[in-house]
Amino acid sequence: MREGGLDAPVRHCIDWESDDFTDPQLVHSELRRVFDICHGCRRCFNLCDSFPTLFDMIDGSETGELDSVPDEEFKKVVDGCTLCDMCFMTKCPYVPPHEFNLDFPHLMLRYRAMEFDQGKVGFVEKEITKTDRNGRLASKLAVLVNWVSSVDKTFFRLILKWMLNIHVKAKLPKFNWTGFSALSSPGKGVEDGPVNRKVAIYQTCFVEYNNPKIGLAAEQVLKKNGIEVVNVYPECCGMPQLEHGDIKSVADKAKKIASELVKWIDDGYDIVTLVPSCSLMLKFEWPLLLPNEPLINKLSKSTYDISEYVVDVCGKESMEKGLTKIEGGVTLHQACHARAQNMGPKSLEMLRFIPETEVQVVERCSGHGGTWGFMNNNFDTAIKQGKPVVKKITETQTSNVVSECPLARDHIIQGFEATSDDDSDKMVNDISHPIELLAKSYGK
Fold first, then answer.
1. Same domain for 186 and 268?
2. What's the whole-model pTM score?
């Protein structure tokens, strides 16, 4: 048996419809098998909180081995996982096709699916995942909702903590009165642009309800290069439900969204997403959940992350000239779910198109993990995990801090502001995504 593997990682389809998938005895048996291998390896000690929790638990047990750790303690390990996929993608030497066959993130997902099947996921957790309903309601009252949810409104934040278990210091995303769909201006790009392509932007729930500026920037850059643009948003991709183990809801969403997006693919459009977690869902997670659905597989092959798409355009055709220097330099945080797509550092490649602009790169996890970092039990851990990224920003002192994941970027800035002097946060411009910098460089 080899110590590790040099073959490309392979992910198996998720057999979530089988009764065995959520059988508690089989789940705990697999946890013990995998945790024992992790205990003997420990390469992942400096990733998320799951691994130090596991190793401390074993080291502090009666025998110092996994056999003296009770099954009920395993939940602490599962709760520390943000499903970032970095252990699978960057650290673990035992992923398939190695005979140990480890896929730690999907094992954590299996445990959560078991809990969901047992009715252990609470009402509040389920309601928070309904991003489309919540976004539509909150956007209609955006001024009030944003004011109430501000971190300096202690009384209201204590109510949020009591009702939703959200940490009083966690900065929550702001809602926009007008969504991206209403602000967008679909149509053909400039007639003399260098590229003859068509794109359907799947803007994601975050861009639709919280930050339409990202979508507008993407639209402007694509149209500047002669690309015809439309936006198509049937509903949220289901990542929030996946985080809580509600796999059936994710599968239902996947079928509905794929049936709508494939119509555009058949008309010659490429599908471009604006948030890497959603790209990951469409390109990788959905096909693993529904491997026999032809529409899902067709969509997977025609979906691009926005940075990936711009780089593809530049590589196969050319980009419109006119990019100008971005003053103050850039610190780029490469989001875990972008790295998990195995496409290379596309945002870095894209930003290098901007002339005379220095780009500093941080590959460490921000610690946020979607809604995970907002929760009262997780916020302090999330801030701690993001400290290496904050340290890098503090050292570089760049005026522009961007991340492929806008939620991660906001979390990083919060950590930066908490550890910096009163004036240093003024150095950071209000630009969250790399595509916004490219639009700015075009003068948009």
1. yes
2. 0.90
Measure the CA–CA gap between 202 and 305, rounded to whole angstroms. 10
The number of distinct structural domains making up the chain is: 4
- The domain boundary, picked from 253, 285, 316, lies at 316
Burial (CB count <10 Å: 0-12, 13-18, 19+), residue 294: exposed
Give the residue numbers spanning the domain of 57: 19-117
Domain shared by 256 and 294, yes or no? yes
Q: Cα separations (Å) of 442 from 191, 223, 343?
A: 17, 12, 25
Residues 159 and 184 in one domain: no
> Does residue 212 share a domain with residue 128?
no
Q: 165 — alpha (psi -120 to 50), left (phi > 0) or beta?
A: left
CATH, residue 295: 3.40.50
pLDDT winner (highest mean) among 16-25, 40-49, 348-357: 16-25
What gap in Å lies between CA 46 and CA 406, rounded to an integer?
23
CA distance to 74, 94, 404, per residue, from 315 (Å): 47, 35, 20
Pair type for strands 198-202 and 270-273: parallel
Cα Rg, the chain, nearest whole Å: 22
Q: How far apart are the first and last CA of the chain?
A: 57
Alpha carbon distance 338, 434 (integer Å): 13
At 158, the pLDDT band (50, 70, 90 cuts) reads very high
Residues 281 and 206 in one domain: yes
Residue 89's pLDDT is what? 86
CA angle in degrees (0–180, nearest 5) for 335-43-239? 35
Question: To the nearest whole number, what is the mean pLDDT of the chain?
Answer: 89
Q: How far apart are CA 288 and CA 290, in angstroms?
A: 6
| Strands of 203-328, DSSP E | 228-231, 270-273, 303-305
Q: Do both 307 and 196 map to the same domain?
A: yes
Whether 427 shows a pLDDT value over 60: the answer reads no
Is the residue at 1 inside a domain?
A: no
Q: How confident is the model at residue 318 (pLDDT cuts 50, 70, 90)?
A: confident
Q: Cα–Cα distance between 56 and 91 in angstroms, integer?
A: 19
Q: At which of 316, 345, 371 does a domain end?
A: 316
Residues in a beta bridge with 187: 229
